[in-house]
């Protein structure tokens, strides 16, 4: 079976080595094996896609959202940097930026001229391994009028039960 550092069964391997001298005497030694990390995992985003709305009058430098990914590898193989990627004609680099180390996305300039537009792009998460591995996630930002109400939830998750005999 192939050894993999990320497999919990391979986390802490302890071997007992026995040496025999041929005359019936034996000596024992305990050896702890620590597996070195191989860059065998690409970053994984916490969400399948990111959808958000921002008001057209949002100030330059405003935080939009934080994109987050994880990498099972250790050390530099698991350290992630973020960047924007788009195939669209609209140049996102003039409007948005992402902080490479934290994944915080923010406005780089005014977006009022984009009111009614849905910005569609990808965020790329790249690990610092050699060779580096990366993943892409879709992101959509709807630029809404300044006076519009953008719905939001106060909690990340809600749970409730509805009896099956409840009328419509």
UniProtKB/TrEMBL annotation:
Localization (cell): Membrane
Main location: membrane
Pfam families given in the database record: Cadherin
InterPro entries: Cadherin-like_dom (IPR002126), Cadherin-like_sf (IPR015919), Cadherin_CS (IPR020894)
Superkingdom, taxonomy of origin: Eukaryota
PROSITE patterns in the record: CADHERIN_1, CADHERIN_2
A molecular-function term among this protein's GO annotations: calcium ion binding
Gene Ontology BP, a term: homophilic cell adhesion via plasma membrane adhesion molecules
GO cellular component: plasma membrane
Record bears the keyword Transferase: no
Domain Cadherin positions: 3-45, 46-153
Keywords (A to Z) from UniProt: Calcium, Membrane, Repeat, Transmembrane, Transmembrane helix
Oxidoreductase found in the keyword field: no
Protein name, UniProt field: Cadherin domain-containing protein
Gene assigned in the entry: Nfu_g_1_022120
